[in-house]
Design brief:
heterodimer; A: mainly alpha; about 0% strand; B: six-stranded mixed β-sheet; four-stranded antiparallel β-sheet; 9 helices
Chain lengths: ~290, ~280
Amino acid sequence: MVTGSDTPVPGDLSRPWHPATALFAWIEDLGELVMARFAALGDVTLFAMRTLRWTFARLPSKGTLLPSFYQIGVLSLPVVALTGTFIGMVLAEQSYAQFRFFHLETRLGGVINVSLLRELGPVLAATMLAGRVGSAMAAELGTMRVTEQIDALASMGANPVHYLVVPRFLGCLLLIPTLTVMADFMGVAGGAFYSILRLGIDSHHYISNSQQVVGIFDLFSGVLKSLFFGAAISLVSCHRGFHCDPGAEGVGRAATSAFVYSFVLILVLDLFLGIVLNTIYYYLWPQGASLFV
Amino acid sequence: MSHKRVDAGAGPGPLLELRDIDVRFGRHQVLRQMDLTVPRGQTLAIIGESGCGKTVLLKTMIGLVKPSGGQVLFDGLNLAEMDERQLTHQRIRFGFVFQQAALFDSMTVAQNVAFPLRQHTHKGDEEIREIVVSRLAEVGLPASVVDKKPAELSGGMRKRVGLARALALNPEVVLYDEPTTGLDPIMSDVINELILRTRKQNPVTSIVVTHDMNTARKVADRVVMLFPLSRLGPDDAQAIFDGSPEELDSADDRRVTQFVHGEAGERLMEMSERSSGGVS
């Protein structure tokens, strides 16, 4: 039997098995796993610091920035607008029955618009960006790693982080707020359209209630969150691409893991940023705005 | 840019010197206590079977792989101690021809060859275009390929574009990683001739990693053979041959003569032992 370790394993009849030895082996494996996770976290952090250092050291040329901006911003607009519109309409459809039960249909605009501006707009735009752009970035950089194009860049005296990562980082960071605003706008429009034309809610009350509840802070908090999401998506995806395993399987895994890690990070950041922004909100406006004022 | 010189620096000393180099990836050690000195103007061929660390050694020389220990002295400067910016500055003095050419897919042939010129010179578009066309002509490619994408070229043409790109900035050292792998015998000989011609036209130092004995015999002044660490004892040297190409045939070491003549020898026996489960 070929094994990589001296530890006896259950089922290996040629060697004595002891529960204590097996427990130690399990603890050892667990320790290795934890160490590897911490090392990976440290690696991402160092990668992010290198990216930030190169971002402030020297801006990339127009020739590298513009294609990234086009790919990240312009080409993502249709899909973000479409998903924004539909999520606004879905929110209206799902909330309507509950609100009608309490005869509060006219308050529907408030809940739809606050949900969109604070949560769904930024999270949706970020998720679409992670799926459409993050995976593609990881696959593209992964292929460049596997085919030695990243080494070729470095060998010609061009810093790969500066040349490949900084334009993508800036593209995500600077354009995700516009995508978020687009998702917000289309969601608000879709929700209003569906509520007024399909569900028959009075437009005057729908709009005036929305205006009462939704404030500039809601828009600001969503856009602020999106900046963090954009930075996280670009850094995680580029890091996955740069550390891609060899072969087609490695590239595929880099693309998948870029989306999965980005999505998890978006949700974790959303929770913590939500807590911080709510604390600030209630500090600034102790009364707060309510759906039922 | 200033950086502490370990030796006297430019002049009569060796251009490239590796001292006591260790390279490991995690628990896997690839190079162990490697010492190698490359004088100016020499064409050195590094041979050895797949997985013996030839490419890692080549990448260590240009700082693409950071050694776990030891010094990489280029013109008296220790590359292993340099930060990214300092390394970038020194890498301009190298040209690297990659195994699969490593051309940028998204760029045309002209943009690939012009890349180092655009990065490191302030030449105008017209001047760069002229240099690109002349570099391509040097490697036997017509001006009609300039607007093609790498995917539209054959393997031999891609290798030649890679060579043109590596020579764009008139480097002092050209590193070739398996320049003839995957090419037909005629195209392999074309590449060998180009390596020789490059050396004649420019006073460059060349290091060629290859397992093609024709290439090693034809282009090299000196041959060094590496052996995989996994099949060496703890105190064995990893470089098992260092001499002229003519001395290869008369080498005393059976591992060298078997490699040179392409004989499997006891490797077949080792493989059959492994496949029957003898390794633990």
